[in-house]
Amino acid sequence: MDFALTEEQAKIQAMVKEFAEKDLAPTVVERDEKGEFPMELFKKLGKTGAYGLPYPKEVGGLGGSYLAYALSVMEVSKVDGAFGIIFSVDTSLYGGSIMNSSAPTEIKKKFLEPIVYGEKIGSFGLTEHGAGSDAAGCKTVAVQDGDEWVINGAKCFNTNGPVADYTVIYALTDPALGTKGMAAFVVEKGTPGFTVGKVENKMGIRQAQVSEMNLENVRVPAENMIAKPGEGFKLAMATLDGGRIGVAAQGLGIAKGAYETAIAYMKEREQFGKPICKNQYLAFKMAELKTRIDAAELLLYKAAIAHDTKKRFSAEAAEAKLFCTDTAMEVTTQCVTMLGGNGYMKEYNVERMMRDAKITQIYEGTNEIMKLVISGGLFR
Ligand code: CAA
Asked: Dihedral of CA 325/329/335/339: which sign?
């Protein structure tokens, strides 16, 4: 497997890195504190077409690779983990649902093109209060009425939900069939009966807006059905495989951000008459973290390259998500310790990174579910 980046991938990574360092870094502490959606910055990155990076040109995307997309999520997450998930949900969960669906090309183009340049924002509605890890426990229903579908139910933990122009809603058209009776629809903001419920007050990723989304007799035209009855669950699962690569990239970015902060600090900070990096116990700890980060990066590359080869990559994505996000938690926790009392203070950034890291082990499939996905393929 060749991990060398193409010229184009390296160029995109460098461009996003510059955006993260120049535009995101100076205000990230303040934005985390306020917990508001970073609309201006979201639109600024959008002008580059970043949110449509991995999608083909015929549907309005940039025609880039999934690896370039993963590296972009990683670069923003190094500085701002919340921005990483806003980006990832928009591109891989909303965009992925459209792209992986069997909808006609003109419908894909209609719902993908506006998100590519950040003119519109997408969200993904699968989870419900009674259907988290058990996504098949969905109770939202859709009933056909002439040329329309009428949707009733409630979703929760929708990242980007309150600000999204388009949300993909997974719903049962035949509840008796369970997952085999699931379809998917694009529901546009402002559709009567489609409302934002409780907006969550979270430990980390504070700028990402996460909410319930309620559906009461929501009518959508038949053309908004992107997955036909019976196709919805598989679309959700296949899309989550891609989403998990985004979360892996977010976790790896957060880990790298904390690691680089700690390295810089340890060279400067003196105790007992020398920089603390001269303490071999601490230096060895950093060596372990560096090795773990490098191993995580290889798994991320492997999963993204598997995505680009168009084969099923569920296990590769689950391994990358599991390892990169556990790495994020381990590295950020250790780096808070490396900075001592300062590590606990907001202006040193690592406490935010530690808070942001925790959710990466939970969403888009908990790391226990990742083990279920990986082990499911081991004994076939
Ligand atoms: N790709 C394509 N098809 C898939 C698939 C995949 N990755 N995974 C499963 N399928 C298919 C199976 O082949 C099977 O097809 P057949 O019926 O034809 O055999 C069908 O889907 C059902 O599969 P399972 O029997 O394996 O389904 P299950 O009910 O046992 O569930 C699970 C499996 C892995 C536990 C799944 O429910 C799962 O991934 N749960 C976690 C859900 C999740 O990640 N939620 C996060 C939502 S988004 C979020 O976090 C919020 C946010 O905004 C960031």
From this structure: positive
